[in-house]
Amino acid sequence: MSGATSDWTFRRLDRADFPLLGRWLATPAMERWWHHEWTPEALERDFGPTADGLEPAEDFVAVRDGAPVGIVQRYLLRDYPEYLAELRSVVAVPDGAASIDYGLGVPSLLGRGEGPAMIAAFVERTWAALPEVTELVVPVVAANVASWRALEKAGFERVASGRLEPDNPVDDPLHHVLRRHRPSG
Length: 185
Known about the structure:
InterPro entries: Acyl_CoA_acyltransferase (IPR016181)
Protein name: GCN5-related N-acetyltransferase
CATH architecture: 3-Layer(aba) Sandwich
Strand order of the largest sheet: 1-2-3-4-5-7-6
Region (Disordered): 165-185
Helix content: 25-40%
Pfam families: Acetyltransf_8
Mean pLDDT: 92
Structural class: alpha+beta
GO molecular function: transferase activity
Number of strands: 7
Shape: globular
């Protein structure tokens, strides 16, 4: 796997993907940083509304060379006003901003440049699919060095650090906020 953005495709997550997603969420890296239950009930509760189009966020399966290898979530920050207000306590966020979350579910791909490649490919897809999105703003727990380094390698710049509620209660609230602007032209 070369890491080239052209080798990545993304398809909407549906219920048929829930068993695979559950296995990914149970891997040590995903379990540590996503801190998400992987029971069928939890997957239905947390991913079912998005799969049905009842939630404004979008969940995608990242596919590399024909094989599903990860998940990417995308959402307009304005669709989550409480979260947006919390984020704005740390950094200025324009109305046209979106955010993403991501994870590789295949442990053998970790540390090989595939995370940054997946993120970069998804960013390009976002620019094409959502012309109203002016930038991507992504907060990451400061302790999750691999995650914020992957964003930097995918063209994001760290623009702020501050205290935000962590997904995993064992984490310190310090987050780094990274941003990537839509390219001009």
